[in-house]
Each structure stands twice: as structure tokens, then as C-alpha cells.
Amino acid sequence: MTMTKTFDVGVRSPVSRQAQVLLGRADALLSESIGERDAGDRFLGSYIAALKGAAAVLASLPNSIGSRPRSRNAWVLMAKAAPDLAIWSEYFSSFSATRAAVEAGASSAVGDVDADDFYRHVSRFLNAVEDRLGGQSRFQPVDPMAAPLSA
User: Where is the SAV-6107-like HEPN domain (predicted)?
Assistant: First the structure.
């Protein structure tokens, strides 16, 4: 009987290019949203950035859901496919009605403080997505050959 020992050396499988692009778009949308004067526009830009972050998570996973998932809701799909991010799915899902109200023109649906708080939560979520995808900066390409070889 032969026994094989495996060691976890912190090597991750490569992240798909699509996941990286989606996360970059999420960052860009979030950066743009903070410049909006209107609280509703800030909220909406942040919400869409969060959706792009969820799409990045889903794009990074093998297609284990099947050929056609039952739900098309990003928050439902992410909660099922990435249980470690389920708390974020629940949080953002709770703002779906607010998003619909803002898109319908309800200017009182979100105030300045709420829009700014939501922006900060989206920023934290995108950091969690980045960590899940491997922790490489989305702003600077990383050369794996330039990393120090330390034990």
C-alpha cells in the first residue's frame, strides 16, 4: 500500500480572465459612483458595482451549477456557489427593492448617509472578492517571478 502526502503550499489555480475583468469593472463603477452628487445615483452605482463583484465570483468558479441555473438572481447564485460570501448575498439582496425604487425615480428612497454607508459596504465586499480570487491587486499586474522565494 502506497501512501501519498500532500502539502498545502498556498498555490491557487489561476483566476479566469473574465473574473479579473469583471472585478476591474466593479472597481471602476464604484470609483465613479463616489463622485455622484445625488445619493440615489451614488447608491445605484455602488449597487451595480456589487453586482459586477458577484459576477466576478461566479465567473471564477467551475460551471458546477449545470447548463442553466434555475435562478438568474446574482445574489441567489452567489450564495449557492460561494457559501463563504452568503452573508454578502443576503445583505445586497435586501437592497433590491431600494434599487428598483431608485431606478423608478423615487428620489427619497435613499439619503446621503445611507448611500455613503452602502458605498463602504460595497468596497468591503469587493475586497472580500479580491481576497477570494487570490488577493492580487486589480490595479497593478503582479509578476509571479518577481516574488521573493521565502519559506
Answer: 36-130
